Amino acid sequence: MLLRTKSGRKVRVPTAAEERAINAGIARDPDTYVLGEEEFKQLRPALRGRPKSAVHKIAVKVRLDPHIVAHFRAAGRGWQTRLNAALAAHVKREERRPGHRS
Known about the structure:
Distance between the termini: 59 Å
Number of domains: 1
Shape: elongated
Oligomer: single chain
């Protein structure tokens, strides 16, 4: 059965037979045990999402020519990072030009 979480994620819930098989496997595993009440209290939630970056980027909406977007997307995942790097290189070149104003 598939359930949908608040965030919209689909989660597959095991059937009763699958749940019994999972629990039987846990019972057979010598490295597993049921946490005691004190151990359970010490648990902390796992961190989710992307780690905080030292450099905070600003989300902007920008209109680009289709061939520019196609060029960067053609290389696959990370195309926005590569586009940012290309713009950063351009800014660096411009800042070295004589008479450049910030």
